Amino acid sequence: MTTKTTILTLPKEELVHPGNRACTGCGLNVAYRIGLKALGPDTILVVPPSCLTVLQGLFPVASTKLPCLNVTFASTAAAATGVLEALKAQGKEHIKVVGWAGDGGTADIGIQALSGAAERGDDFLFMCYDNEGYMNTGVQRSGTTPQWAITANTPFKGKLQQKKDVPAIMAAHGIDYVATASAAYPLDLFDKIKRALVLHGTKYIHIHTPCPPGWGFDPRYSIKIGRLAVETGYYDLYEVERGAFRLTGASEKLLEKRQLVPVADYLKTQSRFKLLTDEQIAQIQAQVDAKWSAYYLANE
Predict the structure, then answer these.
(1) Along the 300 residues of the chain, how does pLDDT read in single tens digits?
(2) Number of domains, the chain
């Protein structure tokens, strides 16, 4: 995208009513408000059980101004396909269909329907807000929970498995557009949604979403911690358009500077990582360094 959105060029129209049921400091609040500005009024949302369901509420007291279909946990992408076909049958192809789910409804319970839609090339946008756990039901681990993070069902040693790389899984489907974004960089998210909307087929955006109660930090630091995830290289902002990968926004600038903040600065901000040993922190840092060494080499 040649022209980047600024705070001065961001649309003034609000598609979210003031006030909602989200937790204080919820990163999804930011991503949702800015995301709806990018989507515009001619949009139908498809949402499974999640924190977003809580945030939005239900008719007639929903916080969103857009029509929304609440569906079962596993069926977001399948239901979005159905809505898409119903609109086609009515000749209303100008209306956008957007599935918006959490990591549980995307990486775990909803991945079968999403993979099927991507394989078919169904023409809708799917967005995952990744707060890295089943936060709405008591902070249980999900497929995208980071390794060694404490959750309600991994309380003693933390989660033993690596975080599932859903954007890479979606890119492997060969769809035209896959991107990562962060609630801490909302204008980057806005531009990526706009970019996705002009492309055909299934599009996928993965949004890193800080969660104060689930991650264990003071709600006022949501944006700071979200930015630290990017500044340390722990979470990367990028897009894969028709198979071409490129870092974007703050991650692209880090590629030029070649100077990452130590990953320990991010990990120590959250109580979910309080069991980490020095050896484990060093292992995480080594993984980040290896990933970015590959980025530096590819950029030479």
Answers:
(1) 468 999 999 999 999 999 899 999 999 999 999 999 999 999 999 999 999 999 999 888 899 999 999 999 999 999 999 999 999 999 999 999 999 999 999 999 999 999 999 999 999 999 999 999 999 999 999 999 999 999 999 999 999 999 999 999 999 999 999 999 999 999 999 999 999 999 999 999 999 999 999 999 999 999 999 999 999 999 999 999 999 999 999 999 999 999 999 999 999 999 999 999 999 999 999 999 999 999 999 998
(2) 1
Does the residue 187 lie in any domain? yes
Burial degree of 109 (CB within 10 A; 0-12, 13-18, 19+)? buried
Tell me whether residue 262 is in a domain: yes
Domain around 133: 27-299
Residue 94 lies in a domain: yes
User: Could you give the 3-state DSSP secondary structure of residue 247?
Assistant: strand
Q: Is 154 in contact with 141 (CB distance < 8 Å)?
A: yes
**E strand spans, the chain:** 43-47, 68-70, 96-102, 125-130, 177-182, 203-208, 238-241, 244-247
CA 67 to chain centroid, in Å, comes to 21
DSSP for residue 105: I
Question: Which string of b and e fits 119-145 if b means at least 16 CB within 10 Å?
Answer: eeebbbbbbbbbbbbbbbeebbbbbbb
pTM of the predicted protein model: 0.97
CB atoms within 10 A of CB 185: 25
Assigned domain for 5 exists: no
Q: Which two tokens stand for residue 74?
A: 């596993």
Contact 37, 15 (CB under 8 A): yes
> What three-state secondary structure class fits 277?
coil
- The CATH number covering residue 46 comes to 3.40.50.970
Nearest to 237 by CA among 274, 199, 183: 183
